Amino acid sequence: MVRSASVVAVTVGGELDIVTESALVDRIGALVDDGALVNELTLDLKRLRFCDSAGINALVQLRKVAAQRGWRFALVHPQPAVRRVLELTGLGAYLNLERESTI
């Protein structure tokens, strides 16, 4: 996790599934409930190899937590397989999935 004055950025790695989703939500929930002045929550997915429906649910929950607090929420650097799942579900825009680089 990287924290600046107004941004919390968390790198998510491994697999995000029914086994790990509650741990992610709980950990990030603890980070955002500490009363700090934050206006953005960014999840860096560069190390996330797999995401199933439970993982997608966790991402949606975190998006809702951010929205309730008035924060910007974004997903950055997704692996191709994770990007594909998010795009196929139609949640890419809702979760503020970064666009693919055109470079």
Task: Give the secondary structure arrangement, pairings included.
Blueprint (H helix, E strand, L loop, with lengths): L1 E2 L3 E10 L4 H12 L7 E12 L1 H16 L3 E5 L3 H9 L15
Parallel strand pairs: 2-3, 3-4
Antiparallel strand pairs: 1-2
Helix pairs in contact: 1-2
Mean pLDDT: 88
At the fourth CATH level, what is the homologous superfamily? STAS domain
- Number of helices, where a helix is a run of at least 4 consecutive DSSP H or I residues: 3
**What strand line-up does the widest sheet have?**
1-2-3-4
Radius of gyration: 13 Å
- The CATH architecture: 2-Layer Sandwich
Q: How many separate structural domains? A: 1
SSE succession: EEHEHEH
Question: CATH topology, which one?
Answer: Transcription Regulator spoIIAA
Level-1 CATH class name: Alpha Beta
Unreliable sequence segments:
none
Q: How many strand segments?
A: 4
Q: What characteristic shape results from the CA principal axes?
A: globular
What fraction, in percent, of the residue positions are helical? 25-40%
Beta fraction: 25-35%
Major sheet attributes:
4 strands, mixed
Strand pairing plus helix content: what structural class?
A: alpha/beta
Distance between the termini: 27 Å
